[in-house]
Amino acid sequence: MSVCLYPHFHKPFPYNQESTWIKPCYVDDVEIGNNSIHIDWIFDDLYQYYHAEGVSKEDFLRAFGQQSTEYYLLKNPPDVDYIGCVTYRRMLCFVPEIPVYENQINLPANEALKLGTEQERKILTHYMHFNDVITNRSTFLPGSVSQQYLESQPPEYWWLFHKAIQDLFPHYDKYSLHWFDESVIPFTTNYFFRKELFLRYASELFQILEYIYQNCSKVYPVKKSSDNFSEIYPWRYPGFIGERFLGFFINANKLNKLEVPLIFLQ
Fold first, then answer.
1. Where are any strands of DSSP class E within 10-89?
2. d(CA 265, CA 112)
3. Is the dihedral of CA 10, 14, 20, 22 positive or negative?
4. CB atoms closer than 10 angstroms to residue 198
5. In total, how many domains does the chain have?
6. What's the chain's average pLDDT?
7. Helix axis angle, 145-152 to 237-252, nearest 10°
8. What are 198-220's pLDDT values in tens digits?
9. The whole model's pTM is what?
10. Beta strands in 198-261, from DSSP E residues, in sequence order
């Protein structure tokens, strides 16, 4: 069973360049290191909506973040059994010395040089043998997933997200949407999927985002003084939508999920 983790980088950061199963991905003109993947510009289908509003490619990529790597992997599926995605400062923990029940482990950045060993890979593939997906530990919210989003973000994109699921994917029955009324969610969009599930997840996610682009009032919203939400950069909504869709997708498809500690590199 083969596995590969594709961390999304937007600037240089330490990582284990000798690892056989970690391949950083990046779109910016920065020097990342050995065994990394530079993603050429492949985003015209989605960028067209931003271009129509005069948004630069650089600002589009800032709004897209990790989804640049997910889009690349969808369009260029790697020859592996399991696909993982994280951002450059986060890792899912398969270190045998760290108990699996831990929530989050904070480590200095240089500790990233020690992650990605063959022992970790063996633990990971063992876990994947019994699960469809692995994420970091879920967060328990004081309110619902929906309420938490609407307290900080522009509501327009949230309701278009709901409508996109209903219009594009009728195989998800109306009861699936009740997940948004729950109060447990795996934030930060760090995961390993079986390859076929990753491709389905990513395909549905980008169909949802394109639906939102086609129907929203502003593809790249900038906060105004009159806005009554707390998010400083509302143009980041694609990542926030993706974060919630991950939890929805896992629940709606009744996937076997394992949660492991999150390593945050400081």
1. 25-26, 37-38, 82-87
2. 7
3. negative
4. 23
5. 1
6. 96
7. 180
8. 999 999 999 999 999 999 999 99
9. 0.96
10. 257-260
Strand 184-185 relative to strand 139-140, pairing: antiparallel
Q: What is the CATH number of the domain that holds 260?
A: 3.90.550
User: How, if at all, do strands 3-9 and 25-26 pair?
Assistant: parallel
| Residue of 264, 256, 263 whose CA lies nearest to 127 | 256
What's the DSSP call for residue 93? -
Taking each helix axis from N to C terminus, what angle separates 237-252 and 155-168, rounded to the nearest 10 degrees? 40
Check if the beta carbon of residue 261 is closer than 8 Å to that of residue 90: no
Helix (H, G, I), strand (E, B) or coil at 218: coil
Bridge pairing between strands 90-92 and 184-185: unpaired
Residue in this structure with the two tokens 């995961």, named with its chain if needed: 191
Q: For 53-112, how does the pLDDT look when each residue is reduced to its tens digit (9 = 90+)? A: 999 999 999 999 999 999 999 999 999 999 999 999 999 999 999 998 899 999 999 999
Distance CA 44, CA 21 (A): 29
Give me the DSSP letters along 35-56.
Answer: T-EE-----HHHHHHHHTTT--
When pLDDT is cut at 50, 70 and 90, the band that residue 29 belongs to is confident
**Domain housing 90:** 3-265
What are 97's two structure tokens? 């010395």
CA 108 from chain centre, in angstroms, equals 23
Confirm if 249 and 161 have CB atoms less than 8 A apart.
no
Using alpha carbons only, how large is the chain's radius of gyration in Å? 18
Q: Rounded to 5 degrees, what angle do the CA atoms 111, 83, 119 make?
A: 45
- CA 176/CA 162 separation, integer angstroms: 11
Q: Are 251 and 179 in contact (CB under 8 A)?
A: yes
